[in-house]
Amino acid sequence: MDRPFLTTLLERLAAALTVGELGEVTRLPDGAGVERSFSDGWLRIDSRLVADPLPRVRLQLDPPADARELCAAWAIARPVAVSPDVHQHTWQILVAGEELADPYARRIAAEPIRAGRWDVMPYLAARPGGELPGVVSGASPAYDVGERGGAVRSIEIAPTPRMTRALEPGHADALTLLDTMASAHPAWRGSGAGWSVDPAATFAVIYDAWAPVTGGALLDAGGGEARAAQLCVVPERGGEGFGVTLLDTLEALARDQGSARLRLDCTAFLLGDELPHARCGYAVGPPYAGDADVEVWAEKEL
Length: 302
Prior knowledge:
Blueprint: H1 3-7, H2 9-14, H3 19-25, E1 34-45, E2 48-66, H4 67-73, E3 79-82, E4 92-100, E5 106-111, E6 113-115, E7 118-124, E8 135-137, E9 140-141, E10 143-144, H5 145-148, E11 151-159, E12 163-167, H6 172-184, E13 202-208, E14 211-222, E15 225-233, H7 242-256, E16 261-267, E17 283-285, E18 295-301
Parallel strand pairs: 5-8, 15-16
Antiparallel strand pairs: 1-2, 2-11, 3-4, 3-10, 4-5, 6-7, 7-11, 8-9, 12-13, 13-14, 14-15, 16-18, 17-18
């Protein structure tokens, strides 16, 4: 087993945004004790499921890793083992949260281990031994990994889910995002009329804690091309990966509607010093040449 590969996994994942970067940070030489596999994921947008551009990665460990040592290396202060299935055939390590009110049992909240935009889910080879503990998470006993230990046989890495909706352009949440961006960047207002969204467009919005934080208008331009404009990220939430998550969502929606290419229309001054598009596989065309006041055209084959 390549110990540095596992102990530094969260650190590397925290810096990975794209499919290519996910592949790089999870790649190991043959014979290193980790077998890697990819599987398709799904993105829920309202009641629809569309193919997620970001795959799920599974690392099969041979030999298994010591659960205590791995959690200590990842600085997980309160790791617990719980079962995500009703038959308790599989056991996953989560991060224990606060204790919840319950008249019948000690109940705790538990969340996946997170690194950047990824959920990291270690699975144990077997249920922790000993009598059932006196604490539960959901419907499963919650075993203290520090106390009970265990052997990690596999690690699954998946995009952290975000609540995503496809709204009509005139929806209040879409207008809230546009107004927020126009207030932070007065140049958006142009002559004072503000931005208008094509009524035929779909406005994709991503929420965090029930608040809209990023969104963009997607329109079928015909000829196999989709176009996205009015790309918004609430200014105080910049740098948290929401912009890249929005691109993933727009790509998934465009592909779902049958488009083979996605073109983005936005303005350079909204993006800071470094354009993120090329990192996400987009070709950035003229007239952008470092001038923050001009439009940016970016295209990607889907």
